[in-house]
């Protein structure tokens, strides 16, 4: 017993003399394994003449004159930039219809045109942009920005989500794995299917605590293990838009645009569990009818909402002499307008009795006469 007490005393003394280490939150180092609704909402469908593809919103723009400038603050933004493939949107000025969903509801379907495009045969460069005004979209569009240039924190084995309009339907996602990264291209599984061209590869950044676009789907390539998706990295996209050219940009042998594939890829996850896929190609795409009962934008901000003052005030608020006087004037003005309308109706009824021999009950007599005529 004495020996036990001695050991216990020494142990307590040693523990009390040691500096306590701060517990490590292992969750901070774990990869994010879910997909936010905003990533779906940032993805849209592009319907062109004879083809259907995907695009995603990557940033806000502010228009000044005829030029567009990047804008970080949604309140100052006037337009949204969507990125897709050039083999989806073709060259500048090509017309399309952009279909936008939010929370699963179709909230916008508008005519748009390609803004810029970058393409070269045999080279892994297949990019285009479409710029749409927030007014046409009817609300603030969620965006998933490109990962910053030079970060290069994507590696083989990382979990990514490919989001696109598979089979020409509304956006859907597949969880996939990065197989390898080579020459600015991401090889990933499972490979996307027709309709996904122009869709994004999205990844949750632990360092920056937000969703980012780490790749843009464009091709598929058949390997010894089957078909794999092929996407441009975010750095490659930055380089293409900045006009930078690097060596080793040749498209790998066997890579083909996704829309050229005639069969579904191995391990494709289908929501409807069908065995075949067919993209409906509209030769003259037109905007769809949008029936929106509830405004379900993730960021419900519109200019008119910001400019229109709130009529209701919270109950129990502080008394404000100027505010209450203005409310009194507004209510008095509304009451005066109602009185004017009533006075006008009375005037229209009385005037025939003044200008003609009609009696005061001319209105009732006229109604009775009409009823008699109808009975006959």
Explain this structure.
The structure is a single chain. By secondary structure, this protein is α+β, with helices and mostly antiparallel strands. It has 2 domains: 37-260, Thrombin, subunit H, CATH 2.40.10; 321-375, no CATH class. The protein is 25% helix and 30% strand. The chain has helices spanning 2-17, 37-42, 86-89, 134-137, 234-242, 303-307, 321-355, 362-375; strands spanning 43-48, 51-64, 67-71, 79-84, 95-102, 105-119, 126-133, 159-164, 172-182, 185-189, 200-205, 210-223, 226-233, 256-257. The protein has a 6-stranded antiparallel β-barrel with strand order 1-2-4-7-6-5. A hairpin with a 2-residue loop joins strand 9 and strand 10. The longest helix has 35 residues, at 321-355. The termini are far apart. The model is unreliable at 1-33, 261-280 and 293-319 (pLDDT under 50).
Low-confidence stretches: 1-33, 261-280, 293-319
Question: Looking across the biggest beta sheet, what order are the strands in?
Answer: 1-2-4-7-6-5
Helix content: 10-25%
Q: CATH architecture of the largest domain, please?
A: Beta Barrel
Radius of gyration: 32 Å
Structural class: alpha+beta
Helix and strand element order: HHEEEEHEEEHEEEEEEHEHHH
Number of helices: 8
Distance between the termini: 121 Å
What is the global morphology? elongated
CATH class of the largest domain: Mainly Beta
Profile the largest sheet. 6 strands, antiparallel, barrel
Task: Return the domain count.
Answer: 2
* Mean of residue pLDDT values: 76
CATH topology of the largest domain: the name is: Thrombin, subunit H
Determine the strand fraction and express it as a percent band: 25-35%
Secondary structure tally: strands = 14
């Amino acid at each position: 017993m004495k020996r036990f007490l001695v050991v216990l005393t020494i142990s307590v003394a040693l523990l009390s003399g040691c500096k306590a280490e701060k517990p490590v939150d292992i969750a901070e180092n774990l990869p994010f394994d879910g997909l936010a609704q905003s990533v779906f909402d940032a993805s849209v469908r592009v319907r062109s003449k004879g083809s259907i593809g995907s695009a995603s919103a990557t940033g806000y723009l502010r228009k000044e004159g005829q030029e567009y400038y990047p804008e970080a603050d949604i309140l100052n933004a006037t337009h949204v930039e969507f990125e897709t493939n050039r083999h989806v949107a073709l060259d500048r000025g090509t017309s399309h219809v952009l279909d936008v969903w939010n929370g699963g509801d179709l909230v916008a379907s508008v005519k748009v045109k390609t803004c810029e495009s970058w393409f070269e045969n045999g080279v892994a460069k297949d990019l285009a942009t479409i710029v749409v005004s927030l007014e046409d979209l009817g609300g603030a569009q969620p965006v998933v920005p490109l990962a910053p240039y030079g970060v290069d924190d994507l590696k083989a084995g990382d979990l990514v989500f490919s989001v696109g309009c598979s089979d020409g339907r509304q956006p859907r996602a597949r969880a996939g794995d990065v197989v390898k990264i080579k020459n600015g291209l991401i090889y990933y599984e499972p490979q996307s299917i027709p309709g996904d061209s122009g869709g994004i590869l999205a990844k949750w950044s632990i360092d920056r605590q937000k969703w980012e676009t780490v790749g843009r789907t464009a091709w598929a390539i058949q390997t010894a293990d089957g078909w794999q998706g092929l996407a441009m990295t975010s750095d490659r996209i930055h380089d293409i838009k900045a006009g930078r050219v690097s060596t080793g940009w040749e498209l790998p042998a066997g890579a083909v645009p996704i829309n050229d594939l005639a069969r579904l890829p191995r391990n494709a996850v289908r929501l409807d569990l069908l065995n075949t896929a067919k993209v409906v190609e509209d030769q003259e795409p037109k905007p769809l009818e949008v029936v929106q009962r509830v405004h379900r934008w993730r960021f419900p901000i519109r200019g008119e909402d910001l400019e229109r003052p709130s009529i209701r005030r919270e109950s129990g608020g502080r008394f404000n002499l100027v505010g209450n006087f203005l409310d009194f004037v507004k209510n008095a003005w509304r009451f005066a307008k109602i009185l004017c309308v009533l006075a006008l109706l009375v005037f229209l009824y009385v005037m025939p009795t003044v200008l003609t021999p009609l009696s005061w009950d001319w209105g009732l007599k006229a109604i009775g006469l009409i009823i008699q005529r109808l009975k006959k």
